[in-house]
Design goal:
Blueprint lengths: L18 E5 L12 E5 H10 L2 H6 L4 H6 L1 H10 L18
Antiparallel strand pairs: 1-2
Helix pairs in contact: 1-4
């Protein structure tokens, strides 16, 4: 069976790499029990370093919407050139407000 594909960077997610489930609507905003997607851990960290829970719930609650965000699109293009097991520290939170 092929590895699942990360919906942010579109790279495969091998079983041996850090990965996490992302609630498309944050649990704090009513998404508990709602749809989730499997992501590379680095991609998941970048999503939460970029967007607030309110922004995720209101505007970025699909993989397509996440990929359309300018910073996440730039990140996805950058990380897509790396191997699936690539790890890097995501810089501290840079979102405004």
């Amino acid at each position: 069976m092929p590895d699942p594909t990360c919906p942010l960077c579109l790279r495969p997610i091998p079983a041996n790499v850090p990965q996490s489930l992302h609630h498309l609507i944050p649990k704090l905003k009513g998404g508990k029990g709602g749809p989730t997607v499997l992501l590379h851990h680095i991609c998941h960290k970048e999503i939460h370093a970029t967007l607030s829970e309110a922004e995720l719930a209101r505007l970025y609650n699909t993989p397509e919407a996440l990929r359309s965000h300018p910073r996440l699109a730039k990140f996805a293009a950058w990380v897509a050139k790396r191997p699936p097991d690539f790890l890097s520290r995501v810089p501290g939170k840079r979102r405004k407000g």
